[in-house]
């Protein structure tokens, strides 16, 4: 087996934060951070980098449906409520998340392992 590579564990901004009423979801996302950190240490001798990606809300149909249900309001109002929780004031695009995943998969991140990478518009600060 060749040495090297990159493993990206996809989590959520909730893997770095939490809120009332989401214990199960938060626990599952925080567990991914523990898995990533353990795997990063175990795989480092083989040159395999392991990092976790933590996106915030992404503008898509699934996210809009979740927001509508959580807020209990029409989509535009629910989206505005979520936007107000994001310091940059907007949802990410799928392309923005993909760009960070591409970076983590590339040799540009050759000295990164065990990192939690937030792509959340500032939600985790």
Topology of this protein?
Elements: E1 5-10, H1 23-43, E2 48-55, H2 61-71, H3 75-83, H4 94-105, E3 116-119
Parallel strand pairs: 1-2, 2-3
Helix pairs in contact: 2-3
Question: Can you tell me about this structure?
Answer:
It contains 4 helices and 3 strands, in the order E-H-E-H-H-H-E. It has helices spanning 23-43, 61-71, 75-83, 94-105; strands at residues 5-10, 48-55, 116-119. The protein has a 3-stranded parallel β-sheet, with helices on both faces. The N and C termini lie far apart (40 Å).
Low-confidence stretches: none
Structural class, by secondary structure, is alpha/beta
Sheet of most strands: 3 strands, parallel
Distance between the amino and carboxyl termini? 40 Å
Number of strands: 3
Q: Count every helix, treating DSSP H or I runs of 4 or more residues as helices.
A: 4
Provide a short characterization of the protein structure.
42% of the residues lie in helices and 14% in strands. It has helices at 23-43, 61-71, 75-83, 94-105, and strands spanning 5-10, 48-55, 116-119. Helix 2 (61-71) crosses helix 3.
Task: Provide key terms for this protein.
3-stranded parallel β-sheet; 3 strands
